[in-house]
């Protein structure tokens, strides 16, 4: 079974998938040795490990790190694909690059791009219109070549617009084709 198949099966099951954060191949190997079923390359963690803020990291820097990790573990690797690194068409290319890198799945979020550093003074969360995020998801699904490559639609709207808006957006992202 491939890592993508394992992740697809796990998210369709009844168990919670715990995917600790890795920042490189050695931390991913440690996660694997500890017996976890998946690991996660987060944008914030990658930025911190690179001594950059997350908004300053590029798509290709994260893709290259993800590829390096994915080639050295047997676990599914889930990667933070930011806000798709741009407009809906950019998101399509982002999905292709991560899939070619060998990762099992990604999440894309409905924040504006370029991202803002949430830990800076006077930061205000901004999310894109729901229709724009749905288009990003549709194009991400269209770009997918392996049906087991998992696309996760993430919303940050609960911080800006409350619980009901978050649920509304999560449902809309599933309807647009996100796997979860």
Features:
single chain, 180 residues, alpha/beta, TIM Barrel, 5-stranded parallel β-sheet, 5 strands, 11% strand
Walk me through the structure.
The chain has 180 residues and is α/β, with parallel strands linked by helices. The protein has a single domain, classed as Phosphoenolpyruvate-binding domains (TIM Barrel). It is built from 8 helices and 5 strands. It has a 5-stranded parallel β-sheet, sandwiched between helices. Strand 1 (21-22), helix 2 (25-33) and strand 2 (39-41) form a beta-alpha-beta unit.
In short:
This protein has 180 residues and is of the alpha/beta class. The protein has eight helices and five strands, in the order αβαβααβαβαβαα.
């Amino acid at each position: 079974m491939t890592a993508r198949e394992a992740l697809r099966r796990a998210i369709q099951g009844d168990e919670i998938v715990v995917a600790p954060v890795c920042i490189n191949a050695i931390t991913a190997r440690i996660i694997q040795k500890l017996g976890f079923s998946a690991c996660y390359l987060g944008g914030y963690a990658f930025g911190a490990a690179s001594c950059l803020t997350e908004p300053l990291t590029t798509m290709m820097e994260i893709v290259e790190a993800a590829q390096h990790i994915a080639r050295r573990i047997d676990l599914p690797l889930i990667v933070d694909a930011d806000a798709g690194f741009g407009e809906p068409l950019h998101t399509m290319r982002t999905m292709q690059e991560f899939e070619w890198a060998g990762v099992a799945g990604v999440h894309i979020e409905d924040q504006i791009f370029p991202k803002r550093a949430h830990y800076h003074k006077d930061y205000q969360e901004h999310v894109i219109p729901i229709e724009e995020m749905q288009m990003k998801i549709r194009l991400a699904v269209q770009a997918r070549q392996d049906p087991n490559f998992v696309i996760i639609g993430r919303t940050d709207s609960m911080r800006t617009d409350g619980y009901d808006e978050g649920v509304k957006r999560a449902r809309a992202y599933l309807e647009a084709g996100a796997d979860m």
